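Researcher: Let's do a round of design. I'm pasting the structure tokens now; please hold your answer until I've finished.
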């Protein structure tokens, strides 16, 4: 059997139907109410939250997922002093499992899945939308949930990456498009040694430098996301080939090892200590995370301070006994917030000119931040990679700092494919060579 024999000789429109059937399996649910954390408030709201999700599941005609899950959680909190992003996620992941006694229904003893260990791809986003005065009532609190089969997420990432490669990464809408870096030399006009600057010149020089740093941070973080998403897609595609004919298995195994090493050795990602396997190891685990993050800032002074909203990505090879993805964030995120000090609205840190009456808005905006978690990532995602026989018993944990893009890598991949397929369908070009390569062997 050869690789070419894996492709199906079917009508072009088959792939449209095939794609739509996969997309139809995606569950999208809106749950009203303030995001909560564990405690008295979360306990009181848990039953109502479960009821809303179970009602939506019944409307879909779907039952709790039994296999591996990819979950995107988008929270909007409109109250003062909302809970931190990792606390909200932990509480929500717990209540999406077994139904509370009063919520058990026929054939529905669970809400979205049986156990949160089924979640292998997790994305969490928190919008802290509290506003003082009448504007505070303009936005409704709630939680937007997107649940997919993990196998579908693998397909989206692999297909999108293959299509992007076929088009030589020329499409800027591709989640794998690597942005160009701006000029490597920091602008130094008005700041030559010995220069005496007026207040206006000093303000202009500081503003130019501020926006230069933003551009470089955005470009570097965007490149990190694109390269890691590409590495993940190549690794997942190689894993799919594990069922190849025996004579090809050795070739695919070598390719899989190369893609795995490339993913875990990305120079812009930060290796963290192995995950704790016993209660006594947790303190050392936290201490080593803090040390590694400090080393990161020493190596990358450009990110002191962070002037763009960020997403943290954790790539996890679990220890032998497994690990809940939400527990990783519970330990690592508070430390990252303290060391990296990511700001949810860093544009407010821009230089301001003294006695400028138009700056009153900034004073009001900064006052608002005293009632929310201002030093926080805007989002984080945790991706569990399958273990191999060569992995250490404690597993592997890699952290990458990326640009906040309001969605997970796999959601961007699905959106990218939707757009490309819709445009190709309109042009009636699904039979071209690019699409034959993308759909082959699926």
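Researcher: That's everything. Go ahead.
Model: Designed sequence:
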């Amino acid at each position: 059997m050869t690789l070419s024999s894996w492709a199906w000789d079917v009508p072009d429109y088959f792939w449209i139907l095939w794609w739509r059937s996969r997309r139809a399996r995606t569950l999208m649910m809106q749950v009203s109410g303030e995001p909560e954390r564990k405690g008295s408030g979360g306990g009181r709201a848990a039953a109502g939250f479960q009821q809303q999700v179970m009602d939506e599941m019944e409307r879909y005609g779907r039952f709790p997922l039994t296999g591996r899950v990819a979950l995107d959680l988008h929270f909007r909190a409109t109250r003062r002093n909302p809970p931190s992003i990792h606390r909200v996620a932990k509480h929500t992941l717990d209540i999406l499992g077994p139904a509370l006694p009063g919520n058990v229904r026929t054939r529905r003893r669970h809400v979205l899945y049986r156990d949160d260990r089924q979640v292998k791809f997790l994305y969490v986003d928190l919008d802290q939308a509290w506003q003082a005065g009448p504007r505070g009532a303009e936005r409704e609190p709630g939680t937007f949930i997107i649940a997919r089969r993990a196998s579908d997420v693998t397909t989206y990432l692999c297909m999108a990456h293959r299509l992007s490669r076929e088009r030589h990464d020329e499409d800027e809408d591709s989640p794998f498009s690597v942005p160009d870096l701006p000029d490597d030399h920091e602008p130094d006009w008005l700041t030559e040694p010995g220069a005496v600057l007026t207040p206006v010149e000093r303000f202009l020089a500081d503003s130019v430098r501020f926006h230069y740093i933003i551009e470089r941070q955005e470009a570097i973080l965007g490149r990190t996301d694109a390269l890691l998403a590409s590495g993940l897609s190549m690794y997942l595609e190689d894993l799919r080939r594990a069922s190849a004919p025996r004579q090809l298995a050795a070739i695919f195994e070598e390719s899989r090892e190369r893609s795995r090493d490339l993913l875990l050795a990305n120079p812009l990602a930060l290796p963290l200590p192995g995950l704790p396997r016993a209660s006594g190891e947790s303190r050392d685990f936290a201490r080593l995370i803090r040390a590694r993050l400090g080393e990161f800032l020493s190596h990358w002074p450009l990110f002191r301070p962070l002037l763009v909203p960020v997403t943290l990505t954790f790539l996890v090879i679990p220890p032998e006994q497994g690990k809940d993805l939400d527990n990783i964030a519970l330990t690592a995120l508070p430390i990252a917030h303290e060391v990296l000090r990511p700001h949810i609205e860093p544009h407010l840190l821009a230089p301001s000119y003294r006695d400028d009456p138009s700056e009153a808005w900034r004073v009001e905006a900064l006052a608002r931040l005293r009632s929310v978690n201002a030093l926080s990532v805007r989002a984080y995602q945790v991706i569990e990679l399958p273990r191999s026989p060569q992995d250490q018993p404690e597993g592997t944990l890699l952290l990458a700092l990326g640009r906040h893009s309001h969605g997970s890598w796999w959601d961007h991949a699905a959106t990218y494919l939707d757009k490309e397929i819709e445009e190709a369908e309109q042009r009636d070009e699904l039979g071209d060579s690019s699409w034959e390569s993308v759909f082959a062997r699926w």
